[in-house]
Structures
1.
Amino acid sequence: MKGVLFNIVQEVVEDLYGSDTWDDLLDDADVEGAYTALGDYASSELAAIVAAASVRTGLDPEAVLRLIGRLALPRLLRRLPSGVEHADEPLAFVRSVNDIIHPEVLKLYPAARPPVFDCESTPDGLVVHYRSSRNLPDLAHGLLEAVDDQFEQSVVVQRLADDCDANAVFLVRVDVS
Ligand code: HEM
């Protein structure tokens, strides 16, 4: 897992609870924690940090990852190269994660292994099939929920029953009510 993701988790934790708490989490998780953006680290380190945060907050690990995703998106967007076009509509933005954003990420971080989001337009909204060897559907859930904060239209994300090929399936729709 790319160090940039750990840098963002650190920023989120420090903004919410301060830098001492980040150090405490690293101690609890028994990880070194000197993450550089381009470095590669075991996903198990993220799982250990999330488990430590879960113990301290009383939130379950799934909720911790979802909250991190929710707060991570603006920080990730700031790390995209300035020339990358932002979609002007929420569902187009979600499609762009697979078609534009993560391919751009691969130019910045050639060894990255971003997940796949297969998107399918349906009358109910955009059905998004998330596939990843890292299996972080709760992180994906929170990131998708954070799309709401990027646009004036309100975005609703629902987790659908998982299909056998995907790690998770989401329905993302714009709430017109
Ligand atoms: C709604 C928008 C986005 C979603 C839903 C999303 C989803 C995810 C998820 C779930 C992962 C974890 C790895 C996995 O599941 O296999 C990931 C990895 C990553 N994403 Fe995104 N992402 C989004 C936007 C962005 C943006 C704007 C950036 C810009 C820098 C970015 C950069 C990365 C990087 C660097 C990784 C690490 C890949 C690796 O460690 O190999 N993502 N993304």
2.
Amino acid sequence: MNYPFWDVPIGYGILIAAVAILHVFISHFAIGGGFYLVVNERAARRAGDTGRLEFLKRLSKFFTLTTLVAGALTGVGIWFCIGLLSPAAVAVLIRNFVWAWAIEWTLFAVEIAAAIFYYYGWERMSAMPHMTLGWIYFMFAWLSLFVINGILTFMLTPGSWLETGDFWDGFFNPTFWPSLVLRSCIAAMLAGLYALLVASLLQPADLKARIARNATSWGICGLAAALVALYWYWKWIPPGITQAAAQRLPTPAAALQLCYGFAAAIALLLVLFGWVLPRRLHFALALILMASGLGFFGSFEWFRESIRKPYIITGFMYGNGVGLAHTEQLRETGYLAQIVYRTGNDGADLFRHACRNCHTMDGYKPLKPAFDGTDQAFVAAIIQSAHLLRGNMPPFLGTPAEAGAVAGYIKAKLDPRPLPALYGLRGVALGERVFQIRCGKCHPMGGQGDKTNSLAGLAPEDYGNMLDMASEMGVGMPAFTGDATERAALIEYLTTLQAGEKK
Ligand code: HEC
Ligand code: HEC
């Protein structure tokens, strides 16, 4: 709340995902590719294999360009984005890890210089110094992963840092080692995929097949080891986080499944076109492989980001930048008193600081579909019960009046038509929709908080009575504020429910 709010029209999630996923895809290749180059250069020199040396030279040009130019640009891009999107969290990371960042940037400087000299050294240096330079490059690149890995894993599993505040506790946190191994394996896999891309353009076919087979081994071994490491990583995430996600968050599971799907696609394509038919390896196919690699890595990062909800730093700061240490104070004063940069529109300011980090009205994780056709009292009630909804959200810590102001802001952007007109539904179908919108956010059918068994088999009057006293049925459950048509349709739908039924 101490920083101005950067109101980009597209969702924060999309913006940061686009820049960050591209960056990790390039930066991990910078590590794996360095290793691939030195190992293969040594083998090729020993065997006097000039074809392969030519290929490595070509690869290292492509490598230097992608890692230095695109890698550095997207890296700076990440700092711009996270600094503007989550300034409070970035401040925590800088304050706690300032020496780690300083070391990181020193490593980058050496890494970049080594890569440039390595590329120019192909023509101008003898074998030994050239390979030494390659090793220096690779070691520094890997060390930069070592450092950043400590900070990245800290955000999901800060471990005993939460009590001690000690640098080393935060750095060597519970998921540090599995994540380091996982990322190193992914780096090796990506080296194989990038090498295949460059190899796909090679002539003659014999040379292409030889190099493609070798690069495929990198891809397959890296992928297989990465999957084992992913399991290890998953096991080391504290059970509290994984259980809450399994019960209340649809996204991490979907992201993980997508990750496995891409892994299967990579394995299949690699075996088929890298090992069985390497002569047929076409550039377009190698591009598809690269895209699958991007998908694989991207969905892993998506998983890692989404399982952290509602936090940006687990147990320390919520996704909207509210530190857990300040929750009591906020509950007393409300949000507005703590927002330093105010625009004059309180509803909009409150919406930005409480919800906008994770939602837009009609783009990324849109709120319009969740609220269209409902009334302001309902929206206000849901805001105050945000922590009860499926989705693992931070609690709304503002006053009831502030919840009302956010609701007013949201309501003004909603479709004004009532639910029946909005969706063109009647009877049981309308009732089901009313249930999804007014009840299903907390009682999703078949999910955590499913109330089918309590709801099934009552008489219509009982349903009526229940809706009349809805706000007394549970702390945080809103009153039923739908109109008579909605009410009748909802009751009609509820009478169709059967106990034990899971939809
Ligand atoms: C830390 C991120 C975060 C913040 C902050 C946040 N939400 Fe959410 N919200 C989520 C996630 C994640 C979901 C689950 C849905 C999904 O994954 O698409 C969700 C779901 C919802 C849903 C349920 C949608 C449905 O129909 O099931 C509503 C309504 C909602 N949020 C409203 C709000 C409001 C209002 C605020 C501000 C007071 C807010 N959220 C703040 C992350 C957040
Ligand atoms: C903001 C979240 C929220 C919404 C929306 C909500 N409820 Fe609830 N509901 C709760 C909470 C919290 C409880 C009390 C804890 C519990 O039983 O899970 C509860 C309890 C209940 C119970 C009592 C269950 C029992 O086993 O005794 C029923 C029945 C119920 N809700 C039905 C509904 C219906 C029908 C709607 C829609 C009109 C609805 N709820 C909307 C949060 C909500």
